[in-house]
Specification:
Helices cover 31% and strands 22% of the residues. It is an alpha/beta fold and 760 residues long. Among the domains are: 93 residues, 2-Layer Sandwich (Alpha-Beta Plaits), CATH 3.30.70.100; 77 residues, DHBP synthase; 171 residues, DHBP synthase, CATH 3.90.870.40.
Length: 760
């Protein structure tokens, strides 16, 4: 008789709602293992009885043969008393006390489901909500754990006998697929007019497609919220969408049916194809083809389109009609959260959309599309949201439970638990009550489904951010104010799992400095416990404060004043054409008297000033627009670079911007093109910051550099600076798991607060 052994195997990770238990069931039957498997609030527990050889093979293949969406982060094996199991079974979930399981993000519909949806003989032919354990909604429908149907927004849809049979069969692809449904028992799609009244339609998707072809704007309810859609080849329709949405110039996302459609208007290499086709289905920035059939208003004054492939069955059905591409922009008014509720969408989007393609499956938590690009040899996030959240960032060591509330722009929140940092989906710019309420809802949701009770709260140093005010209201917990750029650098260190100190380049538009000025062109020596400001751009005035961000001509005037003194308005420049010169004496007084003109060391503001000087932008319609357009025009053939210098003042390197500005002015007066000036400006910055890092490396003995901040979304600057620093023998660390912009700052805040808690 074979000698049987018994083991209890505990598995943590993304192992619920991804077909893990039926995988275990099939594997156990194959290897003659008896026992049971169940979901718990911590993951999955297996009781297994078999020979030693069978158990060894069982444990090995549990890790090597995972289902497509599963991910194991921890596995533990302990001896167990034999219970005399006669077969292997799947048992009901056990909620238990602790909650350590990881929840799968929402993923695109799989190929097997698509084949069924397009098969006229299949009972789910044309069904917009087809899914299985390998695909479909997860994070956006879950209300609590364990991930079972009663804890999702599918609980009100009772399965028909055929769906229930699939759900109960461990050998079926839909075993315990919580959103499992069919046309007889599941969610339904319908068409409504602009006022929300039902439109009688036998085929709502086909009718919506006809309206799109006629130039209408259709609000479509997707996975994590609504999209506003129109035909991307229809210039008049795109212009009308922009006007109604109050999104004058910011690029609009596109969705095409397949890669062949995308190749009609954009270049796409093998790495970009893999991103487009991945189950996460992000928006990928692709270089435009010229000419192309897409309306010029989709991405004005830009060399890139933001493109994605369909990720829900409904998208596939809609794109099954003959469109090169559809505009698929977030269903909101500019600066508001994306709509997720049908009635809310009619109320908020009624003035924009001509009709609504809706369904009756509730979205529990909104989640915008993620945005990525290939830069400096890696995939970089611009926005991390649907498809990636709530997969955690794994830290180098366990940390206390901390809630970090993020910054003001591109806000995310972060909760830490053990060696995991859960950075939320994109919340947005905290400029209104609706977005603040979204932040509060996201915190409550994550605390509940992750079972995290924070021991401390971290927030930005700026006292007036809504995220700071929210943190200060959590007065039951210790609160830690974290300087903006310190958080940037620690965020980069944390996702690269390195300890400090490092040389940190924190380059962005705005961050509150401890000295009361606006920082943003910073070289820090930092670790999680603290930082020293080793260098920075010399500060200049921001005349008008926030108005100087919206109106880059003000920054151009400030940099000219800094470079040429009070007579700056007499400098002969094309820049003055089109400006109201009567404003210049007022601007000069503001600068010289410090009237509503805080000082800034921001590199983002220097980008704005140079963009205005070369004639690109005197005013911007969205954050970062001037800097982005300056990058877009850079001449790659140019080899020149603007000069730089610095001086050491009280142990800190200060870099005056006047030499750079004077060089720009001289080129403008000599008729040098804006494209060449842009290239020289970028190349000069690369030399400046690489030289400064090398000098600080000599001073400190450090040989590692961390790069963070929104300026590093500039591919021209990032790629060249990484190459230059590495050529100097420095190890360079960049963001790959989170955005370099403020979307990643909550992670840094959490790790800094955890370090302070640890230090007492």
């Amino acid at each position: 008789m074979r000698q049987l052994q018994a083991q209890r195997i505990r598995i943590n990770g993304i192992v619920q709602g991804v077909g893990f238990r039926p995988f275990v069931y099939r594997l156990a039957h194959e290897l003659d293992v008896r026992g049971e498997v169940s979901n718990t609030a911590s993951g999955v527990t297996i009781l297994a009885e078999a020979t030693a050889a069978a158990l060894s093979a069982f444990r090995r293949r549990l890790e090597s043969d995972l289902p497509p969406l599963a991910r194991i982060t921890e596995i533990s094996v302990g001896r167990e008393s034999r219970r005399g199991f006669t077969h292997f079974r799947i048992v009901e979930s056990d909620a238990g006390n602790g909650r350590d399981t990881l929840i799968s993000p929402d993923v695109s519909v799989c190929d097997a489901c698509l084949r069924e949806m397009t098969d006229p003989a299949d009972r789910r032919f044309g069904y917009p909500f087809i899914n299985c354990t390998n695909c479909g909604p997860r994070y956006t429908i879950i209300e609590d754990v364990p991930y079972d149907r009663p804890y999702t927004s599918m609980r009100r849809f009772a399965m028909c006998p055929r769906c229930q049979q699939e759900y109960d069969d461990p050998l079926d692809r839909r075993f315990h697929a919580q959103p499992n449904a069919c046309p007889d028992c599941g969610p339904q799609v319908s068409l409504r007019d602009a006022g929300g009244a039902p439109v009688g339609s036998v085929d709502p998707v086909a009718d919506a497609a006809r309206r799109l072809r006629a130039g209408e704007i259709v609000a479509v309810k997707g996975l994590g919220g609504f999209h506003l859609c129109t035909d991307a080849e229809n210039e008049e329709a795109v212009r009308r969408l922009r006007k109604r949405k109050h999104r004058e110039e910011k690029p609009l996302a596109l969705m095409s049916a397949d890669l062949a459609g995308i190749r009609r208007y954009a270049h796409c290499d093998a790495d970009e194809e893999r991103l487009l086709l991945s189950p996460r289905r992000p928006i990928v920035l692709l270089a435009m083809k010229n000419p192309n059939p897409i309306a010029a208003s989709v991405s004005p004054r830009n060399r890139f389109f933001g493109v994605m492939l369909p990720y829900t069955p409904l998208h596939h059905l809609l794109l099954g009609h003959p469109f090169t591409a559809l505009v698929m922009t977030s269903g909101n008014l500019s600066e508001e959260p994306i709509c997720i509720d049908n009635d809310e969408a009619v109320r908020r989007l009624g003035p924009i959309a001509d009709c609504f393609l809706v369904h009756d499956r509730d979205i529990v938590l909104r989640s915008d599309d993620s945005i990525v690009r290939r830069s400096a040899g890696h995939t970089r996030f611009i926005r991390r949201s649907r498809g990636y959240v709530p997969v955690p960032v794994f830290l180098k060591r366990d940390t206390p439970a901390v809630l970090a509330c993020g910054a003001e722009l591109k806000n995310t929140v972060c909760l830490t638990k053990g060696d995991r940092a859960f950075v939320s989906q994109h919340i947005g710019d905290l400029e209104n009550l609706e977005t603040l309420q979204f932040l509060e809802q996201t915190v409550r949701h994550l605390e509940r489904i992750l079972d995290i009770r924070p021991e401390a709260v971290a927030h930005d140093l700026h006292p007036d951010y809504l995220s700071t005010r929210y943190a200060l209201e959590r007065n039951d917990l210790p609160r830690f104010a974290v300087q903006h750029h310190h958080a940037h650098i620690v965020s980069c260190m944390a996702e690269n799992r390195i300890d400090g100190p490092v040389i940190g380049l924190a380059l962005d538009g705005t961050g509150y400095g401890p000295d009361g000025t606006v920082w943003g062109g910073e070289v820090l020596v930092a670790d999680a416990a603290g930082f020293t400001r080793a260098g920075h751009l010399a500060p200049v005035a921001m005349p008008g404060s926030a108005a100087a961000i919206r109106e880059p001509w003000r920054m151009a005037g400030s940099y000219l004043h800094d470079a040429f003194g009070g007579g700056f308005a007499a400098v002969d420049l094309p820049f003055w054409e089109g400006l109201d010169r009567d404003k210049l004496p007022v601007l000069r007084k503001m600068i010289e008297r410090g009237l509503n003109s805080p000082l800034t060391s921001s590199l983002g503001r220097l980008f704005d000033g140079v963009a205005a000087l070369v004639g690109l932008r005197s005013r911007v319609r969205f954050e970062g627009q001037a800097a982005m357009e300056l990058e877009m025009i850079a001449d790659p053939a140019e080899t020149g670079a603007y000069p730089h210098q610095w001086e050491k003042i009280e142990g800190v390197y200060q870099v005056p911007t006047a030499p750079i500005v004077r060089a720009v002015v001289a080129d403008l007066q000599n008729g040098v093109s804006a494209a060449v000036i842009s290239s020289r400006f970028h190349r000069g910055l690369v030399r400046l910051f690489s030289d400064l890092c090398r000098q600080i490396a000599v001073d400190t003995g450090l040989d590692r550099v961390a790069l963070s901040g929104g300026v590093f979304q500039n591919d021209t600057l990032l790629s060249a600076l990484v190459r230059k620093l590495e050529s100097e023998g420095l190890a360079v660390y960049t963001h790959r798991h989170l955005p370099a912009n403020d979307g990643g700052i909550s992670l840094g805040q959490a790790v800094v607060a955890a370090a302070r808690l640890h230090a007492g």
